[in-house]
Amino acid sequence: MAHASPPGFSATTGPSFYLFHQQSGKALDSDGTTLYFRPPNTDGFQYWQFEEVAPGRHRIRHRQSNKLLTNRDHVGIGLQEAADPSELRQQWDVTSLDDNRYLRITSVNTPSLVLDGNGDAVYLHRWNESSFQKWSRQEYVDTANWMGGIADRRPINQLSIPGTHDSGTATVGPDGAPRPRDCSWYDAICHARNAAEQVAWLAEQAAYTVAGGAWAQCQTMTIAQQLASGIRFLDIRCRHYRNNLLIHHGAFYCNLSFADVVRDCRDFLQAHPTETILLSVKEEGTSAENTDERTFAKMVLDVLQANAPAERLSFRDDYAPLGELRGKMQLLRRFNDKGATFPTTAAGQQPKGIDIGGIVDDGVTNTDKLRIQDVYSVMTPGGKVQKAEAQIQVLNESRAHPSDGKLTINFLSGFGIETPAAVALANNHAMYLGLPSGRQHLGVMPMDFPPSYLINTIIRSNFG
C-alpha cells in the first residue's frame, strides 16, 4: 500500500484534530478506554493527535487520556497505554481519498482491516469503499476567537466568514423557545445513518406549525450561541412596530427585539475583542402603529447607539482591514438612510455602513463592489438546479478573484414545498462535500441550521 501523508500532518507531533465519521457526521470520542461516536463538542475528549512513525504511517493519540488507538487483536479496537514505538498494533496507515477530503485509516497489524463504524459503535472491517469507512479530519478551531489568528492587514472582504440567514428565528413561536431540537442534535442528523432517521426528523419539522412552524424557523441556535460557534455574519430582519424594532421572519414574530441582538453582540465582543461581527440589517414586513416620527433608519441608529458603546460600532462604508474592525459590529445596510444622521468621523466624513441594499431578489447580484447570490426559491427541481448552479458560480468567482475589491455573500438558504430545514439538510452537506481543501477565499456564507463541521471548514479556509 502506498504511504501518502495527508496534507498538514506534522512529522512528529502536531495539532489536535477532530475525526469526523462521514456516514454519521459524528466525531470519534472516547472515555479513555472505549471508543464511540458523539456530536462534536469542545470538552477535549474528541481531540486526537497524529504522530508519524514512517511516511503515511501514524500512531493516533487520544489527547485527553494520552493513550493510543490500538488494534487489540481479537478483543476489538480501543485505547491502550503507549507500548514500544515499533508496536504494530498501535500503528495506522493513513491514506488520503477523494482529493484529500477523506481518510482511510488502516490497521498496520491487520492490513486488510480499516477503521469503520455505524454511528454508534466503532470497529474494524474489510475495506469496501463505503462512507462508513471514510473519515475527515479537522484541526481544532477556537470558534469563539478564530479571527484572532488572522493578520490585521487582511481586508474584511477577503475573509471566509460563516454566517446565518434569518439569524433571529430560533425563538419563533408563542413561547419564544428554540425548537424543535438543539444545534448539536441537528449536527448529528446531518449524516443520518439511514433514510428512516431523516424522515423522522423531517416529519417532526413538518409537524411544527405553530406561528408559522417549520417554514418560519431557520435556526436552532440563539444569537449568542451562533457567535460562540464561529458565526460572524448575522442576517437581522426587523419590523418597525409600535416605536420598536422587532425581529420578524415575514409576518412571524420571533420573540426578540433588535436591542436584544445588539446587546448579545456587544457582550460577545467585550469578551472576545479580536472578533468582528458583520451585522446585516433589513426592514421586514410593514411599518405599523408607530406614534413618533422616527424613520426605520433612525430607529436602527438609535437602538445601536443606545445598546452598545461607540467603540463597539463601525459605520464605515469601505472594506476595512480586520485590524481596524476588531471588537466592532460593522453595519451592512439593507435599508435607505432616510431620517438618520450617522456619526461624523474625525476627517469630517459621515459613512452610513456598507450598502448592500441592491440585492437582486431571488437572483444573483454582481457589481463592482458586490457579488451576492440569494437564489432562494426551490419550489421545483429546476429551481434546485438553478440554486446549485448559482452557488457554485459565485463560489468559483470568489475563489478565482479573492482580491477584486468585491464583498462576496453566498446564501446557502432556500425554501419551497420543503421546509428551510429540509433544504438545509441537503444543501449544507452538498456544499461541504464540494468545498476545496486548503486556503481559499469563500466569502460570506450565510446558512440555515449550520452544522459545526461546515462552520469549521469555512473558518479553516482562512488558514490553509
> Mean pLDDT, as a whole number?
87
- The helical percent reads 10-25%
Strand content: 25-35%
For the secondary structure, the number of strands is: 24
Contiguous runs where pLDDT drops below 50 for at least 5 residues: 1-13, 180-193, 208-212
Helix-and-strand structural type: alpha/beta
What is the rounded Rg? Answer: 24 Å
Q: Give a short account of the largest sheet.
A: 9 strands, mixed
Note the total helix count. Answer: 8
The rounded distance between the terminal residues' Cα atoms is: 28 Å
Shape: elongated
Provide structural commentary:
By secondary structure, the chain is α/β, with parallel strands linked by helices. The protein has helices spanning 183-189, 195-207, 223-229, 258-271, 296-307, 381-400, 420-434, 452-460; strands at 17-21, 27-30, 35-38, 48-54, 57-62, 68-71, 77-80, 92-97, 102-107, 113-117, 122-126, 135-139, 161-164, 233-241, 244-249, 252-257, 276-283, 313-314, 328-334, 354-355, 364-366, 370-373, 407-410, 444-447. Helix content is 21%, strand content 26%. α4 packs parallel to α5. The two termini are 28 Å apart.
